[in-house]
Amino acid sequence: MVAPALLFAGVMIVFPFGYAVWLSLCDVALGQPPRLNGGANYARLAGDADFWNGLRLTLWLYAISLVAQLVIGTWLGLLLARTRRARGIVRTILVSPFMLPPVVIGMMAIVILDPSFGIANWLLAQMGLPPRLWLSDPDTVILTVAAIDTWQWTPFVALIVMGGYLSLPGEVFEAAEVDGARGWQRFRRLTLPLLGPTLVTAAVLRSVDLLRFFDVIYITTQGGPGTASTTLNILAYRRGFEFFDIGYASAIMVTLSALVFGSVLVFARLRRAVTW
Amino acid sequence: MKRRELIGGALSLAAAPAFAQSGGFDWRRQDGQTITLMFNNHPWSQAMREMATEFTARTGIRARIEIFNEEQFRARLTTFMQGRSAELDVFMTLASREGPVFRKAGWYADLAPLLADPSLTAPDYDAADFAASIQGANVFERQVVAVPINQEGPLFYWRRDVFERLGIPEPRTLEDIPAAAAVIKAREPGMIPWAARGLRTAIPYAFVGFVNNLGGSVATPDGKPGMSQPGSVKAIEMYASLLKEYGPPGALNHTFTQVIELLGAGRVAMVHESSNEFANIMRFPNRANDLGVKILPPGKESGISKPAAIGWGIAISAHSRKQAAAWTFLQWATSKETQAKLVSAGVAPPRASVFKGPAFDAWTAELPIRRAWAEALVQLGREGSGVFQPPTDRIPEAREKIGDAVQQVVLGRATPAEAARMADEELAKIQ
């Protein structure tokens, strides 16, 4: 009975990844068979300023987005769990951002954040605030992209948190209330520890997505201005499909995959630590 | 050997036995076949999709056309070709950009034997009718990798009404552009004085005209990177300063779509944008009446105007098993008859006979701006250059490095001279 599953895993997961690893160890000239180059692509990574810039941006985008989504998502999830009126409608509305295809999100962001035509700067002007360049300012473009992702995916975290909270045993909270636990104390000492496994699950799901984050960046900035939003995914895409440097692009992607696996392992350990 | 001789030599090659057919040419010889074609999103491609039924009616061949935006098109094409897929028969190509790499990879079928085979090529096809400079970009040594479908390059569009209202004379030299922009900025606050491509990879297409017109060159006479030459540094300074001082906010993420949108919406007074977008610009209200268009004005000192001039082509995949049917499509799509019809879609014909023909003449006579556009194209074809970077096989990478130099100056992270020096160092590494 295990054979079909093994076959599926082999064909659909092990082979493509193994092939990418193989390509990352080769010189790949278009139209020619790959030739092993003894890990030269990985040696190139070490001296490539664009790679280190991409790694820094990938980790920065990952960190700020993950923290923002977990914090806001937890707050929103608890708020939802305690709201009984119109919960169904609110849930439906919350689901809509992450149901939208990334290309729609990207196009919406371009239209809303366009410095000349966009509604974002119009709103700022109504409040007497100066206009912003949003996706064109190299110092803040990553924050803008993180904000777009946070807008799209925080409701997803909120729904997970709401589900986790509603499944917690009610008597524990009743006992805490009898003991006088209120507000922040109740949240910090009781709710947060009990939600630990739920939050780790949400963090794992968002981590994998955030490290793979490509489409919205590609649509909105193509990695620019300059290299200010050229994360490892964008860098690998450009090396592979625009510069036809497929071996090196594969080395970047294998390195990124190692990061994804590493983050999943860290969270798996964390999950064991917070399970009650 | 001169390029014309090379093309002539390539076109006169003997037919390969694999394609040899008995009897004369017959449009319906491949009747019943289905071919798959992949195009970049372009006015020509859109027109082809609408005209595909005419092709089928004439030849009996069904054409399955897929159109993607340029980045997706290149990614998909790379995947198909690297996998040696026989699924794809015909693809669009910009040989001046990717030709050396694709040819080295063996992706192009050689069209020279097909052109030379009278059983496969229509007697009235007349390959010599294509402008030599345009077809020349599709010939590598003796291999013909594609046939041209259009000619294009960036042109200078300006709002004649705004210039008249403010009493600004029409720019006669390149140096007149920043001067005009300064007046517009001071006296017409609601109007953006200037727009051009600011996205790193898109910059060189519009920028190389500034380099050439100001007496610079992307390469030195001995083929080394030439961005540090005085004229090239001046070009970086002028292009960056126009974007920074007079361009729209967020210009560094702009490519032709944003530039055309701004021009069409009447928000910008001057742009340097593709001739190819002419039909799109004309769809906006009033632009046919208030715009002027011409080739980028020459530099004051150099007196020359030499912007980018390119032409897309269509090629047959070397992995296609339906090359004869694919070649039938190429002939039909680039025939005099089809190209004459494409004029009304704003596709500038690469065939001299169509360009000088009655259909094109009648179309341009309908509006003064069409006539101006056609004259600018003639000048572009005569004086433009298909070279945007120093000699290298890694053309897209080289163009990105040139675009990066301009961006660094716009961002205030380098002076023009520093950016030029860094670009030359980077460009030298990939030569």
Overview of this protein structure:
- The complex is a heterodimer of chains A (276) and B (431).
- Chain A has helices at residues 2-24, 40-46, 49-82, 87-99, 102-113, 119-126, 141-166, 170-178, 183-211, 215-220, 232-242, 246-274; strands at 26-27, 35-36.
- Chain A has 276 residues and is an all-alpha fold.
- Chain A has one domain (46-274): Orthogonal Bundle (MetI-like fold), CATH 1.10.3720.10.
- In chain A, a hairpin with a 7-residue loop joins strand 1 (26-27) and strand 2.
- The longest helix of chain A is centred in the first third of the chain and has 34 residues, at 49-82.
- Chain A is globular, with a radius of gyration of 22 Å.
- Chain B is of the alpha/beta class and 431 residues long.
- Chain B folds into two domains: 3-151 and 310-365, Periplasmic binding protein-like II (D-Maltodextrin-Binding Protein, domain 2, 3-Layer(aba) Sandwich), CATH 3.40.190; 154-308 and 384-429, D-Maltodextrin-Binding Protein, domain 2, CATH 3.40.190.
- Chain B is 47% helix and 11% strand.
- Chain B has a five-stranded mixed β-sheet with strand order 2-1-3-11-6. A four-stranded mixed β-sheet of chain B has the order 8-9-7-10. A two-stranded antiparallel ribbon of chain B has the order 4-5.
- In chain B, helix 10 packs across helix 19 (395-410).
- The radius of gyration of chain B is 22 Å and the shape is globular.
- Mean pLDDT of chain B is 90; it is low at 1-20.
- At the A-B interface, helix 11 of A face helix 3, helix 4 and helix 19 of B.
Short note summarizing the structure:
The complex is a heterodimer of chains A (276) and B (431). With 276 residues, chain A is mostly helical.
